[in-house]
Amino acid sequence: MRCSRKYFALLAVLWMQSGVLAQGLLVDVHDRTFRLPRPPVRPEPHPLPRTSYQITRLAIDAAIQDQVARVQVSQTFSNTGRRELEASFVFPIPYDGAVTNMTFMVDGKEYPAKLLDAKEAREIYEGYVRQNKDPALLEWLGSGMFQTSVFPVPAGQKRTVTLRYTQLCRQSGGLNEFLFPLSTAKYTSKPLEELSVRVTIQGSAPIKNLYSSSHDVKIQRKGERRAILSYQVQDQVPVADFRIFYDTAARQVGASVISYRPDSKSEGYFLLLVSPEMKKLDSPPVSKTVVFVLDRSGSMGGQKFEQAREALEFVLNNLREGDTFNIVAYDSKVESFRPELQRFDPEIREEAVGFVEGLHAGGSTNIDGALQTTLKLLNDEQRPTYVIFLTDGLPTVGETMEARIVANAMSANLARARIFSFGVGYDVNSRLLDKLSRTGFGFSQYVRPDENIEASVSRLFRRIESPVLTNVTLSVELDSDQSRGQASLVNRVYPRGEMDLFAEEQLVVVGRYRQGGQVQVTVRGSIADQKRVFHFPVELKQESTDDSHAFVAKLWATRRVGEIIDEIDLNGKNQELVDELVRLATRHGIVTPYTSFLADDSPVALAQNRADRLNTVSQDLERLQEPTGKAGFDQRRSKGKFLDAVRAPSSGFAFYSRPDDDQRVAVRNVRYIAGKTFYRRGKTWVESELDETERQQAISVERFGEQYFELIRKHGPRLAKYLAIDEPITVVIDSQAYAF
Q: Are residues 573 and 590 in the same domain?
């Protein structure tokens, strides 16, 4: 099938970074030199091109019943060029042969269309690349296609197109996957103005795990068998497809695994999702103990203290009968609401609210005394116990040495209470708070001076108010006796240690494995005071045949990078950890405050060898010695985001968060494509695994020549994804480097 006037193209797309974007492509069927539009990196004034368009609005609605999805996509195109477009709508099929009942309308008028299999679609995709010298559509090589007849879009006018279809969701390892092909959305003259995505899932059995590997979706559970996932974003440029994983099961705790192993000689990576059963309305909640420890030193005066009081009152108003609690307020002295834990009821709540209202700020900061008083109140190791510790300053009276405060807290924490530390403002000793939380089985959070304390504390309490399974541990073992006498099947599992599982929450656990095959995941924990064990048979890939789950490797690397920074921060720097940090960050394109050389494309930075980079990172890590001030605050807050990451971009530019406002900024010289990281070296994208000698020895291949297409046909969609970028690239395929 020749590439002529019979097509082209809108490819619906969503984004993956902090959200979902879906856009399409329109290709002028009369212009044989038409190139797909790209938004400029830096807006510059230029005359209108002869043919160009912008997607202004996209709305995606999907209703999934078990494995069947009914999808409607509505997109508005604006012709920003100087003449009329005559275009065909082309949509890549998410899974070849799994889509049916497609209809297509333009401004309410239905147009004829047909489904093409992967072979027919390949000829069209390849033909377009040959004719227009534009590799963009190579990204969808290997997938089927939905194609319509030609329709006009006059210059300066808009057209709204609507696509409806039914899709069978793919199932793998007990998880269903809903995929919407959105990465075509990056081909538009300007960012998408408005996007809304809404996915409703209805199950015949209870829905357990819900996970998006691509977008930060909002999840609303409507009972145990129904859930709504939504996402809204404006003025974004999409880079990848929208993906949701979900499973259904009639059991108290659900567990599912996604695994990825690049080859049989390397270690694999797994992502484990664990969710509890939806809490029944008539089931009694698990009773817990909560102690709120409030800093009332002089520096907490004014609005901060008012917000802290509101946070404490929020906690009091959301405790339940059966819970026990207390309040410890401290400045130079330490004062408790009651000398011992109180059983919660409406009467004692009113007394506690009165105690809170009578507190005022003044005095110094006795952190050690406050913690000792708090932890001595706790003695029941079987009961879920949480300490919410809030401070805005440094220890100034009592024990002031960081190491001794931590050691004293560890010795006094006989109930294994989880300590959640809140650092308010830039004057806190953030390293001390991280050590307290790490040794106290909890975590730290940091609130900027302009942020609301009550909002941060209430989010945490909403999370922990309904413990379902406590002191959770995980193990992964081969089903057979093969593992006897061998090293552990899995390693470097994050988060580490025991965890708690809360109602309507999901544990996201990542790790590495040494051997694929049928394995058994065992989840152990306590429900109230009863020990429980759950077993789940799953399969770890012996070798992945494609890169669809490569995001698991990057997510693991992101967590591991956070763990390395944490180890260096809390225990001191050693060269082995510095080496691993540089290696992982370079391999996976992970930009941290200490690997900023990755984002630097200056000639000096590009000329650095490995030894120079190690030295630069080692020097940058010295900043972790700053326990206080804005620099210390920003570093611990940044570290927490790596430790707590639940997704990693599956493609596109690398990103980092600016310290001042958490704004995510694209690093324009680092790209992650189909499991590989590429760095811009001059005008060429070079795979991270290549050194300069290997790069110089790469086989040169002329773009759009016969060898170019022969290699694409030989290596299939995986190579095509790398070549879909419209710039020179050097990549390794089957141990051979090629320069395109």
A: yes
